[in-house]
Every structure is written in C-alpha cells, then in structure tokens.
Hints:
- By secondary structure, this protein is an alpha/beta fold.
- It folds into 3 domains: 3-75 and 87-174, 3-Layer(aba) Sandwich (Rossmann fold), CATH 3.40.50; 182-293 and 336-355, Alpha-Beta Complex (Argininosuccinate synthetase, chain A, domain 2), CATH 3.90.1260.10; 370-396, no CATH class.
- Helices cover 41% and strands 20% of the residues.
- It is built from 14 helices and 14 strands.
- It has helices at 13-25, 46-52, 64-78, 89-108, 123-134, 152-161, 199-202, 238-250, 276-292, 295-313, 320-332, 363-366, 378-386, 388-396; strands at 3-8, 28-36, 57-62, 112-114, 139-141, 175-178, 183-186, 217-224, 227-231, 234-235, 256-262, 268-274, 338-345, 348-355.
- The strands form 3 sheets. Strands 3-2-1-4-5 form a 5-stranded parallel β-sheet, with helices on both faces. Strands 10-9-8-13-14 form a 5-stranded antiparallel β-sheet, with helices on one face. Strands 6-7-12-11 form a 4-stranded antiparallel β-sheet, with no helix packed on it.
- Strand 1 (3-8), helix 1 (13-25) and strand 2 (28-36) form a beta-alpha-beta unit.
- Helix 8 crosses helix 9 (276-292).
Amino acid sequence: xxxxxxxxxxxxxxxxxxxxxxxxxxxxxxxxxxxxxxxxxxxxxxxxxxxxxxxxxxxxxxxxxxxxxxxxxxxxxxxxxxxxxxxxxxxxxxxxxxxxxxxxxxxxxxxxxxxxxxxxxxxxxxxxxxxxxxxxxxxxxxxxxxxxxxxxxxxxxxxxxxxxxxxxxxxxxxxxxxxxxxxxxxxxxxxxxxxxxxxxxxxxxxxxxxxxxxxxxxxxxxxxxxxxxxxxxxxxxxxxxxxxxxxxxxxxxxxxxxxxxxxxxxxxxxxxxxxxxxxxxxxxxxxxxxxxxxxxxxxxxxxxxxxxxxxxxxxxxxxxxxxxxxxxxxxxxxxxxxxxxxxxxxxxxxxxxxxxxxxxxxxxxxxxxxxxxxxxxxxxxxxxxxxxxxxxxxxxxxxxxxx
Length: 403
C-alpha cells in the first residue's frame, strides 16, 4: 500500500499543478483537501476536478462558522491591524486550514502534508508553523522551494503540455486569496507601486467610492463582550452577520486597502485587500471600546493589538503568547457590550452614536456645567503636582543645557 500525502487544494493554478507534479515526483496516494472558509462558488466542482487530475480522494470541509468564531472574532476583539491597514484576512484563515489538514492527515494515516505557498511569501510560514505546532511528526512538502517552475507562466505551460485545463486566463493571472472575511489581490500591475490599481478589473466584494450610492446608508451593529451578535436589529449566525455586513459595506465602497507591506521573509510586497464587512465591524468595535474601556486599559490594549497583529501575521496563532494575549483581550471585553450606529457614505464610515449598559461616559462630568463629581478648583493642585518635574528641572538647570 502506498503512503499518503494530504494536499491543501483550492483548485487554483498552483494546486492544479501540484496534483500531477506530486504524481510525477513522489509515489504517494494524493488526498486533496479543500477547506471552505467562505470562498463561495470557488469550491463548486472541485471534487471532480481533483479526481480527474489524479487525486485518489477528496475532502471538502465547511468550517466558515468556526473560522469566524475562533479566529476572526478573537482578532477583531484584539483590534489587531498589521502595519495600520491590513485586517489580517489571509493570516487568520491559515491556522484553521492548517488545523484541518492535520486532522485529515491523522484520520487518513498520511505521512506528509503538501501546500502550494511560494518560497517568497508568508503563507509557507503560517501553514508550516501550524503543522509543526499540531503534528510535528508529519513531513512537509513545499514544491515552490524545490521544483523547476519559476513563474505563473511556467505553471500555465506545465498544464497545457499535459492537456490539463488552466483555471485562469493569462491576462487575469492575479494571485488571489478569498474567504468570507476578505479577498486579496497581488500580481500584474500591482507589482509596480507606481501604478494605480485597475479597480474595475480587480474588485469583487466592493465598488469604488465613486460608484457608491449618492445617498448614505445607516447600519447598527450590536456586540456582546466584544463579539458582534446582531446587525440592524437581527441576531443571526456569525456567517450570516458577516455576509450582511459585507453586502452593506461593499456596495458603499467600504474596506478597500492598497498596501505596500513588510513580509515576514524580509521583502516588501504590494497588495489590494477588500475587507468590507470586517472594516465595518472593526470601526464599530473601536467606537464601543471608546465608550466602555477606561483610559489605562484602552491605551495598554493598543500595544497588545500591535503585538497580536504581528503574531498572527507571522503565523504564530498556536503560540503560547498569542493564547496569553487573547486571555488578556477577553478580560478587557467583559464590558464591551452595546450597540453602535454608523453612517456609510462613499467609502467613509461616520460615527452616528452608541449606547451601552457599561458606558463610562458621564454627561455631568463631561459637560461644561459643573457637576457634583468634579470641582474645577481641584485642577490647580493636580497641575502643580503633574508639572512638578518640569518646574524642578527649569529651576535647577535653567538655561545651562542650551548654553
């Protein structure tokens, strides 16, 4: 009996090449596994395609709800954003895909897992760290690091020589990654940072602000302990909530990010990310935190958010530090409950009000009218003590420093 390899299979160009390449290079039975994290119709017909090109077995696992609840929501609660713009759409999907690949490998008694991530990208790290954390005994095959194929054009030629249908057009060979949280685009004109993206050709989840309606749209998001639970008054599943958020935000030109980012492997890359619903939820969540978190907790959490984003981007979801940071975040979210109203207009998200039973906003304190909890005279002593180091330095050193 042949040994088995589990292939992370999407049906795209890379993984379409991988099945015949694995058969020609190794003596394995190939088990193609597609993990559905909300990529929609992209999964249609994959089983027939995988078997036809040489796979012995095919799995399609729909883990969209788990993906949102166990990966997207914790990242949202953390407020994690990589390099100020990237909402980590691909990064948060890789750990659950890696987990599912390991589960199938153990079920099937496979000896190896194969992925199609390139040797220049971040995904090779994310997949392999997940596998190492969950099943260190499994071999990992990364063809882009060992085969003679050098480009997407080489891949297309490889398939054409073998009479295998190419799953894309040569003039539309963007590298894309899609899940319910986002859609990323890389390649073609995006490889030149001096060029404006061809948005009319790129966008699939959104429209440009110019094409958004001339009338604003209002949306209300409800949170419980930092987790979105309802949209426009309707409580629903995580998947249905994000689908609704994607539609509302996308048609109003929300969530399009053109980024030149620093990859983990050391180079800069450029991509366009569509994250309409995620951008909406991030903004709503942040507004609610402004209302419900005390100053020190909120400001410290900003540091945690940055560290959390780096860990997730770098493929360290299953690390002890990420788990510890999530525990901190969960503690901060105990009072992040309430409703946030937003106005969407031509790519802009405008705050339109929020309410929470845990609001720390006191009108009597914030008002210019003196309230019972605040005495204006107390400010003098506070300022004297707060400014004492500055005063002492000026008295003792004066102009000596400046000569």
